[in-house]
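Hey L., structure's done. Input below.
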Amino acid sequence: MGTGFASSADGPPAAREQCVASTSLVEFQAAARAGEQAFANIDLPALTHAREEALSTIPCIGERVTTDVAADFHRMMAMAAFTAGNESLVLAEFRAARRLKPGYEIPPNVAPTGHPLVNLYERAVESADADEELEAVIPPIDGTVAVDGTQGGLRVRGLSAIVQTFDASAQLSATEYLLPQDPTPQYGPIPLEIEQQKRRRRGLLAATGASAALASGLYAGALMGERQFKNPSGNLPNPRQTQANNNAVFWSSVGVGSIALGLGAFTTITW
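Output:
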């Protein structure tokens, strides 16, 4: 899962329940744009502060992130990574931003033509058409997910992303930032597992019902045979064999009944 920060040295993100107040998208976007302006002003401390502010507020965002806001954030993160000399992260963040706003160009007042940052952005643009390995973010049960503001969106392997989860009533549950190397999260069972579980349950119910029906039939047969054996007017050619057969049928019904009870208990426990 994403740490919510660009490096482990920054520490883990605050949990949503630890947030004093929700962060609005206006505040989050303002931090991202402040970082871009700081880069334009060659103000590294201000850029670092904007980055840390944006990252620390991600778990506390109280609204659905839009694609425009996500793009602003990814570009700011690319600029921060540029100042740290992390070229691979620069390219990953620029690619993530470019997917959200294909027509964006870095303004000359931020970085003029020929600037190393612009060159890296152009490389990211060129590689944007390369084959992308898309991965589905499995939503929580009865819930949904949004990736960089796209409802039910797919995450591109190797790119960073802002992932949000929503409950059954469409209320925001959590927001986290995934680094390029972070695995794509799974918040609930994958659809195939759900279908397999349904099939297993149907199989257990069918087996339990069949066993119970067979046990009932065997028991009824044993009772019928016992009545015939005890009937004074009955004319049984081989009473001992008849009694043995009745006993076998009776104990078979007990055995099958035990199996039915066991299947029923197992079905209840694993339901």
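Confidence is low (pLDDT under 50) at residues 1-14. The CA atoms of residues 95 and 125 lie 7 Å apart.

-- N.
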